[in-house]
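TA notes, week 10

Several of you asked for a full example with nothing omitted. So below is the full record: structure tokens for the whole chain, then the designed sequence directly under it. When grading your own attempts, check the secondary structure regions first.
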């Protein structure tokens, strides 16, 4: 028995139906949570995303043998709890790198050139004269791009900056990324130096106990007043209230965000009132092509894991000693 808790394309749903006895939920909410909890009692597999799978919830699935998240991020699952129960968590690394990097570079361009603010001005009939200095954006080409988290997606973002925009790439990471240094002439520096010297600061780390609230008031204060901050990781990697203050007080120039502490971002958020904040609704990987690749990967992962093969795409393989 497998629970599918996110709607997926019919062709991939058929593949699951061919293999397993599927109980389907189109997202988990207050209306169906009791039914979901009841289904957990017999579930041997879980596949979906966008639902927080706490240890409390997972403990209600005594027969669980494998979980497959349709995402590269694994922070919605209590990975330590799954590992304690020797349950593999499968995820979808690799297939979304280029699309997510496209999204982050879209954020860089939109934020630097004030594209959303100025497009709104046109739509609202406020374009009454040539755009003057008060509405100028800032150049991207030739600037310094600092990437915090030079993993596969960080590398793809740096690739766009290096080859597409002649940007100087510097990065801070848990370990050296020699490919980025060789291919993109990237420089490995400490995070404080990166914050102080980058024109664009782009965060692409996973959300872990070490990265939670990594960027707060102190870090924003280290950045150039002309700096543009980009977050494509997880909302909780930054102190969102501190970012709002930094944007209002001119500590930094602007921010482009694809992720937020609370998602969906409430319209009451002060971020929604700031022209120097470009806000995307967590669309990093949200293209037809890439989401199909992610679902296909996640379905393959679950089938393999329930057949005992966790050789590919297992987030806790090392911890499971398999
Ligand atoms: C997911 C993401 O699509 O992969 C991730 O970790 O954040 C996005 O690509 C999103 O979580 C919804 O599935």
């Amino acid at each position: 028995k497998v629970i599918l808790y996110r709607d997926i394309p019919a062709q991939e749903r058929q593949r699951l139906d061919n293999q397993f006895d599927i109980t389907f939920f189109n997202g988990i909410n207050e209306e169906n949570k009791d039914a979901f909890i009841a289904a957990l009692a017999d579930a041997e597999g879980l596949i979906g995303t966008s639902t927080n799978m706490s240890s409390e919830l997972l403990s209600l699935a005594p027969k669980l043998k494998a979980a497959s998240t349709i995402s590269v991020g694994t922070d919605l699952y209590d990975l330590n709890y799954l590992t304690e129960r020797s349950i593999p968590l499968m995820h979808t690394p690799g297939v979304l790198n280029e699309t997510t990097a496209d999204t982050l570079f879209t954020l860089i361009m939109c934020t630097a050139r004030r594209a959303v603010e100025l497009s709104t001005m046109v739509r609202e009939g406020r374009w009454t004269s040539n755009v003057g200095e008060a509405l100028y954006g800032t150049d991207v080409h030739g600037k310094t791009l600092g990437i915090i988290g030079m993993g596969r997606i960080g590398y793809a973002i740096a690739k766009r900056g290096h080859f597409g925009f002649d940007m100087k790439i510097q990065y801070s990471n848990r370990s050296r990324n020699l490919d980025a240094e060789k291919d993109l002439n990237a420089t490995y520096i400490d995070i404080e130096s990166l914050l102080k010297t980058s024109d664009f600061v782009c965060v692409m780390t996973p959300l872990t106990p070490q990265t939670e609230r990594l960027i707060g008031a102190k870090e924003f204060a280290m950045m150039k007043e002309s700096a543009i901050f980009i977050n494509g990781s997880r909302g909780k990697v930054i102190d969102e209230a501190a970012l709002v203050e930094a944007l209002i007080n001119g500590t930094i120039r602007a921010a482009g965000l694809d992720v937020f502490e609370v998602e969906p971002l409430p319209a009451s958020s002060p971020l929604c009132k700031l022209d120097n904040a470009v806000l995307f609704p967590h669309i990093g990987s949200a293209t037809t092509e890439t989401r199909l690749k992610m679902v296909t990967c996640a379905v393959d992962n679950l089938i393999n894991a329930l057949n005992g093969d966790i050789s590919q795409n297992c987030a806790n393989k090392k911890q499971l000693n398999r």
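The chain is about 35% helix and 15% strand. Use that as a sanity check on your answer.
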